[in-house]
Inverse folding.
């Protein structure tokens, strides 16, 4: 069974003290992850060390960065390199979140560079893709997402691709409270998997975790995660609420 993942994306939220309290409360919530399940906390850069120390020794629980730069090192004031993250023991980095694509003009090509440098340092990208509302309304979401995958990922070898987690996040559902229906999520996830299969073969495609993101909450997680090609979720708002995120972890396929 491929990995089933509940990934929290704190975005630019919480003070250090609030982040500590949130992790303390989540740790105190009884949950057990089996060998196919993971919980990942994508916290702001300044909180990575704190989160690692809080979550140390917790099985199948990881701390992720929300971004990284595409260059190894150098005069890039304010940026954070993959080498820095690796030296801290970070194993996952969220790449290509729609907020970064929109507010920081991150292109598919730029993201391909970030994917490459993450893989050079053996860090797993959680690669986000997904269409804006006007594309969904025009019915061209498959071609839109296929292009994102092609331009950022399809230069990779099959071995490299298997280190990637994909997160399908329809932009119209992020932070809007408007969730894709489970049928819409399944349809796109199956399409993404079919595209990966066409390029890399069925065996590779079957092993890649594809997360859904977009207003996942306790009330809809069981149904969405229950879809055959949905392998968990990337969760923004609800990951900041202890009971919500605990229930979302619990909703992962067993
Ligand atoms: C996200 O941050 O990737 C996200 C899906 O946010 P939300 O769950 O708040 O829609």
């Amino acid at each position: 069974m491929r990995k089933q993942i509940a990934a929290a994306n704190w975005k630019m939220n919480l003070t250090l003290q609030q982040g500590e309290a949130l992790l303390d409360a989540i740790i105190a919530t009884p949950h057990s992850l089996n060998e196919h399940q993971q919980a990942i906390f994508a916290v702001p850069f300044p909180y990575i060390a704190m989160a690692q120390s809080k979550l140390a020794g917790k099985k199948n629980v990881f701390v992720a960065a929300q971004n990284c730069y595409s260059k190894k090192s150098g005069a890039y004031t304010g940026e954070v390199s993959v080498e820095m993250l690796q030296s801290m023991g970070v194993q996952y980095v969220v790449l290509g979140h729609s907020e970064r694509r929109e507010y920081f003009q991150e292109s598919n090509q730029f993201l391909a560079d970030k994917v490459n440098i993450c893989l050079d340092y053996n860090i797993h990208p959680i690669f986000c893709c997904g269409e804006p509302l006007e594309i969904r309304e025009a019915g061209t979401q498959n071609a839109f997402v296929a292009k994102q995958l092609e331009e950022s990922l399809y230069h990779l070898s099959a071995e490299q691709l298997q280190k990637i987690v994909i997160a399908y996040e329809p932009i119209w559902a992020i932070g809007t409270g408007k969730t894709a229906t489970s049928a819409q999520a399944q349809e796109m996830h199956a399409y993404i998997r079919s595209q990966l299969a066409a390029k890399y073969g069925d065996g590779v495609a079957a092993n890649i975790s594809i997360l859904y993101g977009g207003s996942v909450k306790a009330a809809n997680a069981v149904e969405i995660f229950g879809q055959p090609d949905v392998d968990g979720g990337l969760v923004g708002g609800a990951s900041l609420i202890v009971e919500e995120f605990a229930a979302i972890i619990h909703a992962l396929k067993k």
About this structure: Residues 5 and 38 are 5 Å apart (CA to CA).
